[in-house]
Specification:
The chain is of the alpha+beta class and 61 residues long. It is built from 1 helix and 3 strands; from the N terminus they run ββαβ. A 3-stranded antiparallel beta sheet has the order 2-1-3, with helices on one face.
């Protein structure tokens, strides 16, 4: 099975409830579930200790 490109829209909130970052990034994955898993691993490593909210994961056109 071939990887597809997915777009991840997310935002990060600190412990005080302030938004500290938001972005749209590209993730290579087999399917949407794989994209969500890879996204969470990436975000947890990068924004350790903050609350993460995924707005959407969509297949790139």
């Amino acid at each position: 099975m071939e990887n597809k490109e997915y777009l991840l829209s997310f935002f990060v909130i600190d412990n005080n409830g302030n938004e500290i970052d938001s972005n749209i990034i590209s993730i290579e994955a087999l399917d949407e579930r794989d994209a969500r898993t890879k996204s969470m691993i990436f975000l947890q490593k990068r924004y350790k200790g903050n609350r993460l909210e995924i707005e959407s994961i969509t297949l790139a056109e």
